[in-house]
Structures are given as C-alpha cells and as structure tokens.
Write a structure and sequence with these properties.
CATH topology of the largest domain: Rossmann fold
Number of helices: 13
Largest sheet: 7 strands, parallel
Order of helices and strands: EHEHEHEHEHEHEEHEHEHEHEEHHH
CATH superfamily of the largest domain: Glycogen Phosphorylase B
Strand order of the largest sheet: 3-2-1-4-5-6-7
Number of domains: 2
Structural class: alpha/beta
Strand content: 15-25%
Number of strands: 13
Length: 370
Amino acid sequence: MTISKVALFCDFLNSVGGTEYYNTTLAIELKKCGIDVRVFIGEKTKLTHWTNILSKYNIPYYEPTRQHSVLSSRQIETNFIRNRVISILDKWQPDVIHCSPAGKMLLAFLETKQKNSIPIIATEYTTPSPTTAHWYQKDLPNKVNKINAFIATCKASARGIRNFHGYKGHIKVIRHLISHKQTQDKFIYNQSVACIARLSPEKGVGFLLGAWKIVASKCPKATLHIYGHGYAEKYLRELTKSLGIEKSVLFHGIYPPEKGISSIVKKHQIFIQPSMFESISTSTIELMGYAKPIIATNAGGTKEIINKKTGILIPVASTDILAKKIITLLREPTLCEYYGRNAKQYFMTEYDLKNNIEKTIDLYKKVIRK
C-alpha cells in the first residue's frame, strides 16, 4: 500500500514552539518521501517563518484571508473549512487527514463535514490531565472517538489520551520529529546557565529565579540567561529585581527562528527545564542532541528521557534542590561531560528522524487498511 496524499491540519503557525516545529518538519519529511502533502492552517499567520519554509519546499498551504488578533470562536475556522478546505479535499481526495493537534481545526471540520470518509490521525504533544484541561476544546470528549488513531510523543501523553480524553482507539507512541545536524561535541565551562521557555507560569521560570538567588550567593561569577517571551515577562523581570539578582540574570527574548537553537547552544554550560507540567519539551530534546547537560523537573514525560545517566531530574517547584544541582554542575565539569555524552547517545537512538517518519507513514497505512 502506498500513501500518496496527506492533508495536515494545524490550528496555527504563529509562534516559535514545539507544535509548529513538529508540523513543519512532518510536512517536509513527507514531501521528501514523495507524498503530496498540503497544510491547512486555522488562523491566518502573522509570523512568516514557518510558511516561508513550506514555500521553500513547494508545499502548498491554505489559510483564512482575514487576520484576527484573538481567535475566540470556531466560527472563523468553520467558514474557512466550509468555503475552502472541504472543496479542496473533495477534489483532491487525500489518503489521510493528520490533525496536529486535535484542536479547533479538527472539531470545525467534523461539525461541518457530517459524513467524512477520510481516515483521521491526531498528534498529542502534551500530557492530557485536569491540569492541562484549559488547553483543550470543550467539545473534544464528544468527538475524540471519531479519530482513527492517535500519535503520542511520549508514554505519559498516551496515558493522558486514554484516561483523560477517554479515547478508545489505537494509540501509537512515536517520538517527536526532530531535524538534527551532526555536530562535534564541545563542552563549555564558562559558568553560564540558560533556560529556553515560554514566559508563562506553567514553565516554572519563577521557581528557577528563586533557585538562582541561592546559586548567585554561592557562585558569584555565574550568569543565568533566559530565552523566550510571553505575558509573564514583566512579572519575571520584577521578580528578578525583588530577589536582588538582576545583575546576573539576562532576558534575551526568543532566539532567531531561522537560526534555531544552534545559535545559543555553544554559549552556555548548563541548561535548565523547570516546567510545572509538560509532555517533553522540544528544546530539551534538541539540547540532548547537542550533548548539553540538562537539569529538568519530573513533569509529564520528561522522566522518560532524563534519567541518572542522561541528565538530572528534580521534583517540580523545588527551588532548594534545583539550586543545589546547578551548583554541583557548575563546580564539576566532568559531570557535565558525563551527562552530555549520554544524552547525545540517547538522542541519536530514540530520535532518529527517518525511523520516526517511517513509523508515522506505517500508521497511516494501518488506519487506511481498517
């Protein structure tokens, strides 16, 4: 059986995050496999980074004609789907619809196209639970079992799909799609610590700042570098000042998306992932591929990749423990190398892009056969 056409549904491509990274990588790799892939975006893009990449690979994409600062209603997507998407799908006849995530685009499609014969696959990135319930559409539980199969990027996500969403169908764990260039490992010892995160409460940057107050008192030459943006940035900057650590903490905003994470990995000795809840952070996976020592919270699926050999795992919101572990790595360069090398080895085995794309295509074939 050959897969020749895939429709990729995305709610949005308007930020530099793991979901957008996954969707773009998926589209490119399917294209390289000779598959006619077309991307349907639920809201008109403001950030052109991802659509420029799609255009570079001659991947068609479709989006609403109007741009809205806040997409508070599915009606916009419903009109887009009714007037354009369904018309294209009826003529084109894709083998499968891949929804990434199972969000507004999917629900609007199911509401509009009452009789759908095209198999649907959805990817889940986070860990569905009461804590993350606000990320999901209220109607999803009523529609979730119309999905033919789910891709979970980690085992924790798979459990959430089954237990929280109440999904009864097939779930396949396929690791996140990471495009990685082979690099020579270079270990840095410059007392520089970094965190890549959206600046919102669930990412735990506030707890990192609390820990840094302890680190700064023990390691006065150390610096903390925060990469990201978000609505909590003002609060975090004020917190930095109130803790008296503003001289050793630098906010850099987001790194240039066209350069990617490679533009900052060579600058820092240690990386921190302090999330309150998470599936597996895309940046954490990428950093493992660059052999960087990582301290991460035991949130979601992170413990599936960070263990006693590949990095340091700590309890969520544990400022004292986080501070202690940062100080340990700053003072023990050989330990940094140990974690970095093991992380790289794990990454090369588990996040082989070609292998994970083949698993994805095999899943397409499986749902079509059913």
